[in-house]
Structure formats: C-alpha cells, structure tokens
Amino acid sequence: MMAQHTVVRGHNNNLWARAAVALSDNNKRNINFNRADKLNILAKLHVAAEKSRQKSVESRWRYTRKNGDIVIMRDVFGKIVRWIEMFKQVGDVAVQYDPAHAALPWAGIRFLLQMAVNDTNKHASIVEGLTRIAELICRSAVTESLYLHGTSKAAAELERAMVQLYANILVYLSRGKQYLEQVGAKRTIQSTFLADTELTSKLSEIQIAESDINRCMALVDWNDSIDNHSKLAELLDRIDQPLRRMDSDLRNIRDDLEVSKRRKILKWLSSEPYTRHHKQTKQDVLTGTGQWLLSDPVFRRWKDDSASSILWLHGIPGSGKSKLISIVIEDTLTRCKAGECPPPVFFYCSRNPAEPARSDPDAILASLARQLSCLGPGKQLMKPTIDLFEEKEEEGVDSGALYMDESLPLVLQLVEQYPLTTIVIDAMDECSPKKRHEMLKSLKKILQSSTSLVKIFISSRDDQDIVWRLQHYPNLEIDSRRNGDDISRFVKDQVEQLVQDGTLLHYSTCKPEMRKLIIEKVIEGTAGMYVYNNMPHWL
C-alpha cells in the first residue's frame, strides 16, 4: 500500500494531480503527464472502446477466469462504453467539476486498452480490470461534485481518501503499462504470472481504498448537496443500475411467415402454458416482499457480472422459493419493458400427475427453446427455429415433442442471437429424479458453450444429487434471517384478512390485543416457512 498523505481542503482542487504527485518516480515514468489533448482524450477513448466492442461481437471473444468463470468480452467493452458516456453526463451536469482533471486516468485506460486488444486472449483480465477503473473514475466524479463542498473535518477526510484511491488507480495503470510494454520474447511464464498477481493485488488495494471512501461518505453531511444537485443524485442512482443489454437488431427480425404458420411452429416446439404458471405463482406475492433477494450482494453480482454463471436458490419446503422466483422474473420483465434487456425464459417445475410435462426435462428444455424463438407473443421467429421446423417437416415428422438431444442444439443456436439470455427454473427438485441430471448437464452445456452472456437462476430443495451438482456455484440459502420480515408481513396480512371476513375473532371484545398475540404466536411457529392456505389450522 502507498503511504497515507495529508491533504489541505480547497475549492475545485485537482485531486488527480495530487495523487500523481504522490507516485514513486518509477510509476511516474510510465504515465504521460503533459498531454496536449486533454479535452479530446475521452472522445478518442469512446471511439476505441466502441470499435473494440463491435470487434468482440464479431469475433465472439470470451475468456476463462482462474476460477472457471467464462467472461463475455462484448459485455466488458459495453461497460467501458457505458462509463465513458456516464462520465460525459457528469461533466454536463456538474458545472463546478472540470472533466479535464480526470484526463490522466482516461488516457491510461486508452493506452492499455489499445495494447491489450491486440492480444485479447492473453490480456482479457487487464481489460476487465479497466472496466472497474472506468466505473470508479465515473463514480468518483459524482462523489466529488456532491460531497466535497464544505470545510468540515469529515469532508477533509473524504478528500484524503479520494486522493488515496486516485493514487492507487494511477499505480495500477502504471504497472499495467509497464507489463504490456515488455518485449514478448522476454516475457516468460514466470514473469507473466508475477505481473498478473501484482495487478490483481493492485485491484485489491483499490477496493480497500474504495471502502475507505464509502466510510467517509457516511460521515459527510450531504443533504444540502442533494437538494442543490438533484440531477447528480439521479445520476448516482443510475450508476448502480445494471448495464443495458439489448441489441436493436433483435427488434428488426423478419421471418416472412403467416401468423398461422408462426403459431404452428411455436405449438410444435411446446404447448406448455408457462405464462399461466407464472401468473398463478405471482398472484399471492405481497407488494414489497422479496426485496432482500434483489438487493443481496450475491444476487447483484450474479446479475451485473460479465461472466456467464448459475445462481442457486435453495431452502426448506415452504420457505417461499417459488414466490422469490416469480419476483426475479418480474424484475427482469420490468427491465425488458424498459428496453434494458431481452425477456427472461422460465419454467415452473411441478411433480403433478395431472401435468406430467412439468417434471419432464424434455418438455422443460423444449419450452425454453420456444420462448427463445421470439421476443414475445406475436413477434417474428428466429431463423434457427424455422430451419429446424422445415427440416423436420421435410422428414415428415413435423409433429410430436422434441427430445433433449434435439432441443439443446437449438437452444445453443438461439442464445447466440441475444446479448443476454436469462434462464429461470423453479423447483428443480420437482423434476424427474431419473432425468434431472440430464437437465442440469444441459444447462451447464449452455453456460459453457455460449459466446453470449447467459445467466441461469435455479431454485430447489437440498436434494443430494442437486447439491452435488450445484454446490460449487454461487448460492443463496433461504432461512429466517433472510425471509423473516417477509413471513412476518405475510402472517400479518393473512390474520388481518381472517379478522375482516369474520373467520377469526368474530366475537372477541379485545380484538387488537388478541390480533397482536395471534400474530406473534404464528410467526414463532413458522420456522422460516409460509403457511399459506393452512393458516386457519395454526389458529
């Protein structure tokens, strides 16, 4: 870690310049401090990042992290473009902020980006690190504009912390430049490993410095700033929103099919009423419940990360897994309607003899293929689906359900049409025990084979075979610590309804006291489970 430096408060200080002064001579040599194009550097970087994003789409670039995660580079470059555009908005909104102050780190990002994209397979991790740096530059610009206006001790401490963060960022850029400029012949396996380890260490130091800033921000009185800079406050909120992952070309797909032919193809793929199952599940969800999941750091990391990944939600029977699944689906549908991402594809499994397809992996995967075949009801169909149907039609077998070995290749083709595919499957434990391992293998195949971003969200009980296959993926276990508030709200709502319709406390002369006592006792007995239609039996 670099030594801590005391800073003096002052208005419109260039904190990046202060950070540069704190660098060692070796790090200073790797950074150009006398650039004449400070005002143009951001525009040039924007062009370079956009070109890299387009190239990554065409080349279907991806790389594998040390932990096995597969990172989709089009998403990484898309984030860099986003942070550049966001930073421009900061300059437009915050009159007192001089964007030229941050020209130094932006120039460093541009230099490293230009060198790294020449060999993305070797340097993809550096590009991913630049994405984090770009976000911090943007976020810090908003923080400076909102918080650094007073002369309080807390504001001075925040300024000191920001200078430290900026210094750590400049060191990362300096070390990255030094590494990339090494002559290829001299770069041994050992030196590459050491450089990668050092850069990872520098990112960790940056994260520590960011945590220090967050601590200082909590101590600064910023209410006046928020009142005076509402647009900046809105911008700060937008920074925390997920990346827009939508391709305009998706909305321009044309299949030249009659409506009847389109319906025939979709019905051939699957006739499972997946939307009806979703409506049935979400209708009992109380407004405001399940928000702990959407705000959970593990869930947010799964949703925002540029790596294709599985997130597993597990818990005891009755803990509300299906309701939470419906909340995740609704959250994604809301973002889809706002044009931020494609619609999710989903399936609610159920071991119900009256609906055997809901536990059949063949039917489940076929339903996912149907949903991926178009953007929604009445929309044009994707070419891979039409091609497969016509192939089957020529063979004279255009009817009958597809098996998994037929649906899987189609799904693999379809996910490549999207910048993001979100697959949500509820109650995997309800899937046929004899065949669900094949379903999980298929999902893993989709994850590992796709060159587009894939997010898979699965819920289940802790059945042994499922635990064995999913235990190494990120997971969230539902317990009373997480769903306790939701269950309390549910019990209060149910008791209130029973009281209002006369089923409960109809003849009581002290309803408020009895209502409170009943709610307390029922909550004590739930043990992290919802009681739903069995509520009267608890009373």
Beta-strand share of residues: 5-15%
Number of domains: 3
Please state the average pLDDT score: 84
N/C terminus separation: 61 Å
For the sheet with most strands, the description reads: 7 strands, mixed
Unreliable segments of 5+ consecutive residues: 1-12, 531-539
By DSSP (H or I, 4+ residues per run), the number of helices equals 22
Domain Nephrocystin 3-like N-terminal: 288-461
InterPro entries: DUF7708 (IPR056125), NPHP3-like_N (IPR056884), P-loop_NTPase (IPR027417)
Protein name: NACHT domain-containing protein
Pfam family, one: DUF7708
SSE map:
Elements lengths: L14 H7 L3 H5 L11 H19 L2 E3 L5 E3 H21 L9 H14 L3 H28 L5 H28 L8 H29 L5 H6 L1 H10 L19 H11 L4 H9 L8 H5 L1 H8 L2 E8 L6 H17 L7 E4 L12 H12 L10 H13 L8 H12 L4 E7 L9 H14 L3 E8 L3 H7 L4 E3 L2 H21 L10 H16 L13
Parallel strand pairs: 3-6, 3-7, 4-5, 5-6
Antiparallel strand pairs: 1-2, 2-3
Helix pairs in contact: 1-7, 3-4, 3-5, 4-6, 4-10, 5-6, 5-7, 6-7, 6-8, 6-10, 7-8, 16-18, 18-19, 21-22
How would you summarize what this structure contains?
This protein has 22 helices and 7 strands.
